[in-house]
Design goal:
With 345 residues, the chain is an alpha+beta fold. The chain has eight helices and ten strands. It has two domains: 153 residues, no CATH class; 161 residues, no CATH class. Helix 4 runs antiparallel to helix 5.
Length: 345
């Protein structure tokens, strides 16, 4: 589930200082220069620049925005989604084996970018570096905890320790790299490509994964691939001339053949995975279709390391950097098969 975060940032009121010089003359015609400074000099920086010292207005704005976003998310999801399901006392649910862990890839990915965003915001406030990394780096886990809490009080699901762990992992990847290198040398990326499902399974696939492009990216675990994109040049003390600073190598993980969370069996009456009360003739058993894990190796580009003279272009490249570049890829899957893709996305 993708949570779109809108954060209100308070504008910075800039201060300027001024001074003037006077000349005084005595009868002896001796000149004295007197310089009077009427305002204390304060650091000057633009709105988009990081504060050179703690700016409390920015700090309150960022913190208030994040807390407000968490509250709005909690209330919004409850009204739009969870209120239609039966409530229960807080409970746990073990979904660690579900969807061949592809849902966990989504949790890590979302938490990672929320945490990177949070770290950038707290640096922008002028907060001490380590505090900015730790507080901002936990933003993803904090925001996504709203979903986990609502799951915990839902009879349909429950609080998932593995989901929470995936959220923590996404935050941890950001924090560890910022503490070690003050940059992200290993980025998490995502790619997705529409799947061609067999005609007899199209209805099931549409029920599980939807039909639109946005639903495919959010829900179709057969179509999504998660990537760890590594920048080799950033690990070298002296980069050779032949190695571009923007060239990455990416390791990917995906899955296929999934028509249910745990197995390819469901009840045709209501598409439920629970077949305990399903008439035998309505049990859809497609367990003969293998559920396959897929591993990839592919080149990639770190767009954030491409130098430009435009701040707007820099921002666009940062946004583009959240997805894996379509490129040739070598695949190895759990059926012990090697495949070469001339272009994989």
């Amino acid at each position: 589930m993708l949570i779109r975060v809108f954060i209100l940032i308070f504008t910075l009121i800039s201060h300027e200082f001024f001074s003037f010089k006077t000349h005084a003359y005595t009868p002896g015609n001796i000149e004295f220069d007197v310089e009077i400074d009427f305002a204390e000099e304060v650091p000057e920086y633009s709105f988009l620049e990081r504060a050179t010292e703690l700016n409390r207005g920015r700090l309150w704005g960022v913190s208030g925005g994040l807390v407000g976003t968490w509250g709005i998310t909690l209330i919004g999801l409850n009204e739009l989604w969870y209120k239609d399901y039966e409530r229960t006392s807080f409970q746990f649910f073990d979904d660690s084996r579900e969807w061949l862990q592809m849902d966990k890839v989504g949790h890590v990915y979302n938490s990672y970018y929320m945490s990177r965003f949070g770290t950038g915001l707290y640096r922008w406030t002028g907060l001490e570096e380590k505090k900015a990394i730790w507080i901002g780096g936990l933003t993803g886990t904090f925001l996504l905890s709203a979903v986990e809490i609502l799951d915990g009080f839902s009879a349909e699901w429950g609080f998932s320790i593995s989901d929470f762990g995936a959220n923590m992992l996404g935050s941890g990847i950001v924090i560890a790299q910022e503490l070690a290198w003050q940059e992200q040398r290993i980025s998490i990326k995502l790619s997705a490509f529409p799947q061609n499902y067999p005609d007899k399974l199209t209805e099931r696939a549409e029920y599980l994964y939807g039909t639109g492009l946005h639903e495919m990216v959010l829900k179709d675990y057969n179509a999504i691939t998660g990537w760890l994109s590594v920048n080799p040049a950033s690990f070298l003390n002296e980069k050779p001339d032949w190695l571009p600073a923007w060239l990455n190598m990416a390791v990917g993980y995906g899955a296929g053949g999934m028509y249910g969370g745990f197995e390819n069996v469901w009840c045709g009456l209501n598409n439920s995975a629970d077949i305990s009360d399903c008439p035998p003739e309505m049990i859809m058993d497609y367990s003969h279709i293998p559920r396959v894990r897929k591993y990839y190796l592919s080149p990639d580009i770190d767009f954030s390391r491409i130098e430009t003279n435009s701040k707007v272009l820099d921002v666009l490249l940062e946004v583009l950097n959240i997805v894996k570049l379509p490129a040739p890829a070598l695949e190895y899957n759990s059926q012990d098969k090697l495949r070469w893709h001339w272009l994989f996305f």
